[in-house]
C-alpha cells in the first residue's frame, strides 16, 4: 500500500475489507475527510473526484466506481471504511454513463463483490448532486454496520425514497426514474418551472400578519378562477388544505340551514381532521369507530359490485330509492338536514363514476328537505375528467358549495371553498380570515396559466382515450381484470381472482403495485377491498406514458398468471399487520383478517388519525 492524502472523500477505503469507524483526526477544519494509506488505484480515483460549485462531478471513472457512486448513502456511511481487497478484479463494461453525487443507500454486498480497473466512462450532469458542506456525518456501532450490510433500497414493502421530481417523473437517490401515475396533487406536473418561478418571486414580497390588517390590493386569482366556474359560485374562501375546506363547508351549511344532519356516501373519504373525520365512512367503518348519530350514509352506486348492478335495468332507480329512505330516516330522527356532501366522481372508494341521474335525483331530494349540496372536487378538479373543468359539470348538477384542494397550487398548501355571496356572508367578520394571500395569488394564477397554455384539459381527453382503450384490451386479455372505469386522467381497475366470481383480489393488487414499482412505475391500490388500482397522474401525462403503463401492467399480469398465487402475500412484500400501502406509501389502517366482515377490537382514534395522510 502507498500513502496519499486527498480531500473531499466522504469515507475511507482500505484493503482490509472491514468496516471501521474513522478517527476524529481524519476530519479537517473544513469538514472534509483525509484519505490515509490507500492503494495507488484508490488514490487515482480520489484525484478524479472534483468539487465544482458545490456539486460532485466524476469524469473518466471505471464502471465499478460509477456503481459505488450510485450506492453512496449520505445518511449511513459517512465515517466508515469499505473493503477494497478485490479492487483490482475485472468488471464487465457498463454501457450506461456513471451518475454521481446522489445520496443513496448502499448495498454493501454489491459494493464488496465488485472490482475493476480504471477505464473510460461518461459523465452525466450532476446538477442535483449533494453539496458536501451540507452533509451531516454520523458514526455507527459495529452492530449497526452489520445491519446495514444486509440493507437494500427497495426491500419488501419499504417505500421508494424519492429525492426529487419533475413533471410526471420522480427520481430516487440512485437517480432512477419512476413514472408517477398517482400523484394528482401535482396537477400540472412536479416542480413545473412556471409554478416554481411564481412561488419564488412571490416569496420575496410575502407579508404575514397576525392581529392587524394589511392592504395587499385586490388579488387576480379569484377573478381568473371565477371565469371557469358557474355564475352563482361567486365568493372564494381560501384555506390551507382540503380537510380544512371540508370543515369550513360544513360550518357554512349549518349556519345557512340551522340543521345538523349530514348525508354522505358509503366508503367515502373527506378528510382526517377530528372535526370532519365522521364524514368519512372509510375511516370509521374500517376501524370500528362509532358513527355519530347526525351522520347518515347512502349506498354507493356501484354498478359493478354493489347490491344493484349493471345487469339490472332498474339499478339506478333502486339506488335512488335507498337514498330517499336514508334521508327520510334522518328527518324522522328529529334532526334537520344541513347538507349532502359527495365527490361527483367517487375516487377514494375506487373511482366509481355514478350515473348522472343518481346524483341529480339526490340533489333534488336534499334541496327539497332544506339541505345544501356540497361537491368535493379535491381529487377531480381543474380539468382532470377531460370534458369539463369540474366533475360536477360532467354530472350536470349545480352544487351550492364546491371544495377544491391542493391541486389549485400544484401541491402548494392552498385550498378553497367556493360558494354564493349569500352563504359566505353568514361568516360575518370571520370572512377576513379566508382571504387570498400573495403566495396563493401567484401560485394559483401560474397553475391556471399552465393549464390553459399547455392545453392540459384537452390533453387529458386525448391521453385518457388512449389509456382507456389500452386498459380495455388488457381487461379482455387477462382474467384478473374484472372492470375498468373512469375518464380523462382518472381510472380505476378492479383486480379480481376471476371475472366470474368478482372476488376482490387484494393480494394480487398488492403484488401488482410492488412489481410495477420494480418496473419503475408508481401505482396504488384503493377501495373497500384494497383491490382497485387507481390511476391519477399529473395532467402532463402523455400517450407514450400511457403505453408504457399498459405494457408494464400487461407483463406483470402475465407473470402473475403463470404462478400459483397464495391468498397471503409473502412476508417480504407484505405491509405491516394492520396497515396497507395506499397512494404513494400512505399507511391506512385495515382489517387484520382477510374477511371483510371480520370482527375488530377497539381502535385508538388518535392513532387512526395519525395513520391517515391528508389526500387534499
TrEMBL record:
<keyword id="KW-0663">Pyridoxal phosphate</keyword>
<dbReference type="GO" id="GO:0008483">
    <property type="term" value="F:transaminase activity"/>
</dbReference>
<protein>
    <recommendedName>
        <fullName>Alanine-glyoxylate aminotransferase</fullName>
    </recommendedName>
</protein>
<dbReference type="Pfam" id="PF00202">
    <property type="entry name" value="Aminotran_3"/>
</dbReference>
<dbReference type="InterPro" id="IPR015421">
    <property type="entry name" value="PyrdxlP-dep_Trfase_major"/>
</dbReference>
<dbReference type="InterPro" id="IPR015424">
    <property type="entry name" value="PyrdxlP-dep_Trfase"/>
</dbReference>
<dbReference type="GO" id="GO:0005739">
    <property type="term" value="C:mitochondrion"/>
</dbReference>
<feature type="region of interest" description="Disordered">
    <location>
        <begin position="1"/>
        <end position="32"/>
    </location>
</feature>
<comment type="similarity">
    <text>Belongs to the class-III pyridoxal-phosphate-dependent aminotransferase family.</text>
</comment>
<dbReference type="InterPro" id="IPR015422">
    <property type="entry name" value="PyrdxlP-dep_Trfase_small"/>
</dbReference>
<dbReference type="GO" id="GO:0030170">
    <property type="term" value="F:pyridoxal phosphate binding"/>
</dbReference>
<dbReference type="InterPro" id="IPR005814">
    <property type="entry name" value="Aminotrans_3"/>
</dbReference>
Amino acid at each position: 500500500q502507498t500513502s496519499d492524502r486527498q480531500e473531499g472523500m466522504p469515507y475511507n477505503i482500505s484493503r482490509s475489507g472491514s468496516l471501521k469507524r474513522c478517527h476524529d483526526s481524519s476530519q479537517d477544519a473544513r469538514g472534509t475527510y483525509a484519505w490515509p494509506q490507500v492503494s495507488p488505484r484508490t488514490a487515482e480515483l480520489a484525484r478524479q473526484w472534483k468539487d465544482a460549485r458545490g456539486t460532485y462531478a466524476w469524469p473518466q471513472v471505471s464502471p465499478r466506481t460509477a456503481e459505488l457512486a450510485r450506492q453512496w448513502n449520505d445518511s449511513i456511511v459517512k465515517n466508515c471504511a469499505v473493503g477494497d481487497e478485490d479492487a483490482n478484479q475485472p468488471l464487465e463494461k457498463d454501457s450506461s454513463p456513471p451518475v454521481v453525487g446522489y445520496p443513496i443507500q448502499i448495498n454493501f454486498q454489491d459494493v464488496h463483490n465488485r472490482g475493476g480497473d480504471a477505464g473510460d466512462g461518461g459523465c452525466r450532469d450532476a446538477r442535483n448532486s449533494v453539496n458536501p458542506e451540507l452533509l451531516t456525518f454520523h458514526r455507527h456501532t459495529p452492530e449497526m454496520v452489520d445491519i446495514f450490510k444486509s440493507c437494500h433500497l427497495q426491500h419488501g414493502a419499504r417505500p421508494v425514497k424519492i429525492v426529487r421530481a419533475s413533471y410526471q417523473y420522480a427520481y430516487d437517490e440512485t437517480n432512477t426514474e419512476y413514472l408517477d401515475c398517482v400523484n394528482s396533487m401535482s396537477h400540472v406536473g412536479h416542480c413545473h418551472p412556471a409554478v416554481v418561478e411564481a412561488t419564488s418571486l412571490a416569496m420575496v414580497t410575502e407579508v404575514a400578519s397576525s392581529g392587524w390588517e394589511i392592504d395587499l390590493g385586490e388579488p387576480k386569482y379569484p377573478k381568473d378562477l371565477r371565469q371557469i366556474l358557474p355564475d352563482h359560485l361567486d365568493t372564494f374562501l381560501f384555506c390551507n388544505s382540503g380537510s380544512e375546506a371540508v370543515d369550513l363547508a360544513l360550518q357554512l351549511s349549518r349556519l345557512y340551514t340551522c340543521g345538523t344532519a349530514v348525508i354522505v356516501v358509503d366508503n367515502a373519504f373527506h378528510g382526517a381532521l377530528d372535526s370532519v373525520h365522521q364524514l368519512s365512512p372509510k375511516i370509521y367503518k374500517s376501524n370500528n369507530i362509532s358513527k355519530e348519530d347526525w351522520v347518515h350514509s347512502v349506498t354507493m352506486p356501484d354498478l359493478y359490485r354493489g347490491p344493484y348492478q349493471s345487469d339490472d335495468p332498474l339499478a339506478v332507480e333502486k339506488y335512488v330509492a335507498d337514498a330517499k329512505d336514508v334521508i327520510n330516516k334522518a328527518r324522522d330522527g328529529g334532526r334537520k338536514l344541513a347538507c349532502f356532501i359527495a365527490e361527483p366522481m367517487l375516487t377514494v372508494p375506487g373511482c366509481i363514476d355514478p350515473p348522472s341521474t343518481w346524483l341529480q335525483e339526490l340533489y333534488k331530494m336534499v334541496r327539497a328537505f332544506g339541505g345544501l349540496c356540497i361537491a368535493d372536487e379535491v381529487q377531480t378538479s381543474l380539468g382532470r375528467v377531460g370534458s369539463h373543468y369540474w366533475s360536477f359539470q360532467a354530472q350536470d348538477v349545480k352544487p351550492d358549495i364546491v371544495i377544491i384542494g391542493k391541486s389549485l397550487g400544484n401541491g402548494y398548501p392552498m385550498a378553497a371553498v367556493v360558494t354564493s355571496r349569500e352563504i359566505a356572508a353568514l361568516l360575518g367578520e370571520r370572512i377576513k380570515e379566508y382571504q387570498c394571500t400573495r403566495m396563493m395569488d401567484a401560485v394559483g394564477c401560474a397553475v391556471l396559466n399552465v393549464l390553459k397554455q399547455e392545453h392540459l384539459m384537452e390533453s387529458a381527453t386525448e391521453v385518457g382515450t388512449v389509456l382507456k382503450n389500452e386498459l380495455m384490451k388488457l381487461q379482455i386479455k387477462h382474467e384478473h381484470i374484472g372492470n375498468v372505469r373512469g375518464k380523462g386522467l382518472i381510472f380505476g381497475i378492479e383486480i379480481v381472482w376471476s371475472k366470474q366470481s368478482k372476488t376482490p383480489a387484494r393480494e394480487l393488487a398488492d403484488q401488482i403495485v410492488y412489481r410495477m414499482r420494480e418496473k419503475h412505475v408508481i401505482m396504488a391500490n384503493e377501495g373497500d377491498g384494497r383491490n382497485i388500482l387507481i390511476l391519477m397522474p399529473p395532467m402532463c401525462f402523455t400517450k407514450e406514458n400511457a403505453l408504457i403503463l399498459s405494457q408494464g401492467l400487461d407483463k406483470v399480469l402475465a407473470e402473475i398468471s403463470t404462478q400459483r398465487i397464495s391468498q397471503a402475500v409473502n412476508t417480504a412484500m407484505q405491509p405491516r399487520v394492520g396497515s396497507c400501502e395506499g397512494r404513494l406509501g400512505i399507511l391506512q389502517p385495515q382489517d387484520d383478517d382477510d374477511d371483510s366482515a371480520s370482527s375488530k377490537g377497539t381502535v385508538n382514534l388518535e392513532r387512526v388519525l395519525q395513520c391517515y395522510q391528508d389526500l387534499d
